[in-house]
Design a protein that fits this description.
Length: 343
């Protein structure tokens, strides 16, 4: 349930509403936007059946949230969320780009990649130190050594770092070095991991599961938010379909759906979404046009030699070309469609 307060509602009115909710054994989350103050009620709302919430001073109305996810829903939080990561705003006017190799392979490889990523204008350097590989014989990542190399690349370039965490034990080391923790597609419904990253104090980017519905994905976000972390970014990275030409089917309709259903920012990853470097540029453009808040893509100084995902990694030249187009397209979208995405 969401309680919408009247514009003139006072701090005391809000405190009273919170008190009544808590007295009924429920949790109250107060959100004060520029236009509206609202109070979200978490828990079994039947406990409030005997309370005339709408009659409390300062209350405009109350609305039941129909979805199984609450904190992640737009009903709960009508304004789009902007997540500030050290001054970089995700979900704001600018398209945020996260680029870099699939995996951190060596200092030389990552520093070269970071220079390219920085040169093209992305704000985040990506690179896995812990790699969830289909085969146990494939390169598994440099682990803590990889995190230290990412940290060094951040110091050299000023880029922010996003990297994947695959286990509960990995959360502390990854949170020590990363600006954003990534939960990969294979872990989207690893509920134990979701609950723990909800307590890590850093923003989390939650990739859509390989075969997850949008509803399951938003419920996964809810696990993180319910554990206390409201800084969740969603990432559409393609889903399994019968199509085999592409590695996955990039579901760009998920961008429009998520914008309608949720207030959380959404990033699109056309590298994993297609598995083919040639398709990254057109799909990145389509994602921006669809209203995505940002892009994640794989960039490697020498894709032919990459230890993972070389075939879906851009060279420096192709990455610069893509970024040039993204800049023009996002400016066009901003100038021509002042508010392109309305739920
Ligand atoms: C990745 O970003 O390197 C990755 C493994 O992605 P996904 O979880 O989407 O497969
Ligand atoms: Mn990859």
């Amino acid at each position: 349930m969401v309680i919408i307060m009247r514009p003139e509602a006072t701090v005391d009115n809000l405190a009273e509403v919170k008190k009544v909710i808590e007295a009924a054994g429920l949790e109250a989350k107060i959100m004060e936007g520029a236009q509206q103050k609202i109070v979200g009620v978490i828990g079994d709302k039947t406990k409030l059946d005997s309370v005339a919430i709408d009659a409390l001073p300062g209350v405009e109305s109350s609305v039941a949230i129909s979805k199984s996810y609450k904190l992640a829903s737009r009903e709960f939080h009508p304004q789009s969320t902007i997540i500030d990561v050290g001054g970089i705003k995700i979900g704001g006017e600018e398209i945020v780009v996260m680029a870099g190799p699939c995996a951190v392979e060596s200092c030389e490889q990552l520093f070269d990649a970071a220079d390219i990523v920085k040169g093209g204008g992305a704000q985040f350097l990506r690179g896995g130190a812990y790699k969830p590989r289909t085969s146990p014989y494939s390169f598994q990542g440099l682990e803590v050594e990889g995190l230290k190399i990412l940290d060094e690349a951040r110091k050299r370039t000023g880029l922010k770092i996003i990297t994947e965490v695959t286990t509960v034990e990995g959360i502390a080391p990854v949170a020590e070095y990363a600006d954003i923790l990534q939960i990969g597609a294979r872990n989207m419904q690893n509920f134990g991991l979701l609950k723990e990253v909800g307590k890590c104090g850093k923003p989390v980017m939650l990739k859509r599961g390989l075969a997850a519905t949008i509803d399951e994905w938003l419920n996964a976000a809810e696990y993180i938010m319910n554990a206390g972390n409201s800084d969740v970014i969603l990432c559409e990275r393609g889903i399994r379909t019968y199509e085999t030409y592409t590695r996955n089917t990039l579901d760009l309709s998920a961008v429009a759906a998520v914008k309608h259903l949720s207030h959380l920012p959404i990033i699109v990853d056309p590298s994993h979404g297609t598995g083919r470097w040639r398709m990254i540029k057109p799909m990145a453009f389509a994602a921006v046009a669809a209203g995505a808040d940002g892009l994640m893509m794989e960039v490697h100084p020498n894709p032919a030699k990459a230890l993972s995902d070389g075939s879906q990694s851009l060279t420096a030249e192709h990455y610069f070309d893509l970024m040039n187009g993204v800049r023009k397209l996002s400016k066009f979208m901003r100038d021509e469609f002042l508010n392109p995405i309305v739920a």
